[in-house]
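Second opinion, please. Please look over this fold, written as tokens:

===
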Amino acid sequence: MMLHKKRWICREVSEEDILRVSQRAGISRFLAKIFLSRGIEDETNIKGILNPSLELLHDPFLLNDMKKAVDRIKLAIDRNEKIVVYGDYDVDGITSTSVLYNFLSSRKADVDYYIPDRLDEGYGLSTGAVDRISETNASLIITVDCGITAIDEINYIKYKNMDVIVTDHHECKEELPDAYAVICPCRPDSSYPFSQLAGVGVVFKLIHALCIEMGLGSAYLDYLDLVALGTVADVVPLVDENRVIVSFGIQKIMSTANVGLRKLMENCNYSNKPITSWTIGFVFAPRINAAGRIGDARIAVRLLTTYDEEEANDIVALLDDDNRLRQSTEVEILNEAVSIIEGDESYLKEKVLIVAGEKWHHGVIGIVASRITDRYHKPCILFSKEDMIAKGSGRSIEGFDLFKALCHCRELIEKFGGHELAAGLTVSIDNLPAFRKMINEYADSVLNEEDLVPKLEIDARIDREDISIKNIMDLNSLAPFGAGNPTPVFIYRNLRIINIRTVGDNKHLKLKLRDSDTLLDAIGFNMGDMADVLRTGDMVDVACTLEMNSWNSVDTIQLNIRDMRLEEEAAKEEQYFMSLDRYLKFDEWIDEDRQTDVFGTGMKRISRISINELVNMAESAKSMAIVVNNPDGALLLENLLKKMSTGIKKKLEVCYTIPYNVDFDKIYLVVNPDPDHMGFDNLDNVVFFGNQVSESYIKRLMSKIGNKGLFYFGSIAPDCMSYDDIIPDRKDMVAVYQYIKANSSNNVLKDNLFMLSRRITNNYKINMNFFKLKRSLEVFDELKLIEYREAENGKVLLLVADNVKTKTNLENSKSYRYLQQLKAKLKEA
């Protein structure tokens, strides 16, 4: 069973390759495993990652139009022309504006900045903003973090007799704006070696080029603190130049001369603490972002450009207030959006979630869209509706290019911009239904169901030999971590749970785990709800990161759990109950006459075979599957075949479905296969082993098998599990109903049936499992006590009825009566 439904992806590497890379690069075997899993084995590349150098920065003049831009800016400074830096209201835009403004101010330029209001003007250039800038007698506009798609607005700037230099990093449309210079590493004609700079990274290249042309040496490095801040906040990949920028920028932050940044650090209690990319992304950036989302982004630019400590303190206090307001607004919109999604079953069938609300705050919907994408692992666009216009902000998942999707739907969109994973747009409210339909049709053509299952990339398998302080120090040499260079994640298998508790107001899970004689501490952030699913003594596999935890001046190694699975035996048990759910169609089975042997005279196509014939078939070159009705039967048969033959070279694989691409080197021992999802086409022989309890199921299965060799080997294979394991009694049903009533929020409970069955078992000390729980829910649904619906990601949605005043008789349920008949038949068997 997976406690969290994620697909673990781990690239296996050979010991030979690990040793080779370790020796050639002069690194530990531990680090070599990580590099190999990430497809990195070149010695020079490895050394560049472990030892980032400013020499790895590319020549800024490799960017198209850089020389033109530099010459025009120098001319404007020499002539004392009015220059306006036109930015954006997110952290990337704010830092981009601040860096260029600070640099130009240091050169005594006549410079000002303009940040559009998120609510009134929206993202990017607008004709109204151009009019206001024109009134200041400006002759040169330099856009930062915007402008690459503003074709009409830039034509308007030229009409107003101003020059414009575009610096941007977003995806380009087919046509570039007719600006004096367009500096963007994503230009179709760009030959620049690195295309994934943040907006502030492009500004950094511009001031680097200016320093070269103006003979200012390394003055451009003075701005690395703000450049690193914007780069991390914009979640661009921390590879190549970005890695160099952030590595040296973090060092600059810790001793920053920027008054506003220093005061922000003091306010966050980080003056004398180590700074990491996590600190930037989750402590500093949200406060700066809050200005553009809730308040006035110009305040944040003022913070990063002021030399007045008192003013900086006042601004930091304002940003704190804005951030708290942002947090509360975010929670309100998130709750509304989730309620809309889960109250409309059509969203379950759609791959892109398009959700609109009345006057949702434009500055917050992007964050909420990100949270919904994380929650459902689907692309999401949230729209705020106002005055017949819907302004949206979207976030996407790997494999779905949101910018391309919007280009596909451009006929229904009034304005849009962004990149693969995030975008903003404006749509007429009248066009929203058509837009929702069109983008989902596009998603159906590029996404499959597997794309909607969240993936967890695993770097390597570890065991107790890998748990050392030296290895954690080696891991730190891979920092800074972030997009494109995530913190390494490891699989640690076969750990026994010794202790379970929650911390942080029950939000987080704290475990003590044992590997042989080694005890390990583990923390699962925001996994506190797992405490009533897990049991002391459970064996688990964990996907985790390794870190040092300091508590009461004592440093210990800790596993930071990213995901967890119960060990193989528990997983097999759950798979069995799922297969049993498919196997026993109650209404069909109850109407049959129970037979010890369902392969009677009515099934002429099936030939009985002896054990020797079965062994000969298994030893032959023909492909085969053996159908059994429970895992014990598969194990019994596996042992029997091993005793009877030494000539079977094929691997015996116990499974619950047969893949469509059959491996001829395997014999599939398949438990209660789903007739509608089986790969029978490449099989030569199918053998039924042991007693089967349902003739109707066998007939359904045979109808899918077609003209294959069909055989029956009758041995001592056990039937199903005992009726206590599969038939819930009244006490079980009372416990199920009481738990759901007590734990539903607003009469709604959504959970995975496996997890829910373990919670009920732990709370009421009864024998509950997937199969019994599902039967109980079907009875309650029939009696209208609970409405039972399938939800996303393997979960179910339970809606609890209000005001059930009269005592309900379980006998009124046809499903319950079937259960009692089944129990009676199993008792007779």
